[in-house]
Amino acid sequence: MEKLRDVTLVFLIEKDEGRIDKICLAMKKRGFGANRWNGVGGKVHDGETLDQTAKREANEEIGVDLKNLIKIAELSFYFPHNSDWNQMVHAYFCEDWEGDPVESEEMKPDWFSIPEIPYSEMWPADNFWLPEVINGNLLKAVIHFGEGDVVLDKKLDIIEKF
Asked: How far is 151 from 128, CA to CA, in rounded Å?
């Protein structure tokens, strides 16, 4: 199996009585994934750890300084029609940060209650894995996308820990 490019994806969350009740999504304004709600994140730069990448990207994209990251998923995304897009997405929740999320040239953040998550305006596979991690499951998933980002197939494994 080919080595995938590592990328990070972070969702700010707020809890009420121990359960996630709000999540910060950001509308991607340009580039890969434009016009979709998503977490914040991006490609790992040479010499960076995944944590360093997640923190840098969150600061660049929505102006917050992440204090702690909780790894929630490893998502292997394959695009058979364009292998340059293949990536291993290291997804995190963060409930401890400094600053208020603000709009940048790349992202426009907003808060959503869990029932209001706009899955129809997100990546087509997000409704498959995101509810699992919101409910407290850690997971590894493999997702193959066809042209137009149609989900060709998907496999999800709930795991014990990272």
From this structure: 10
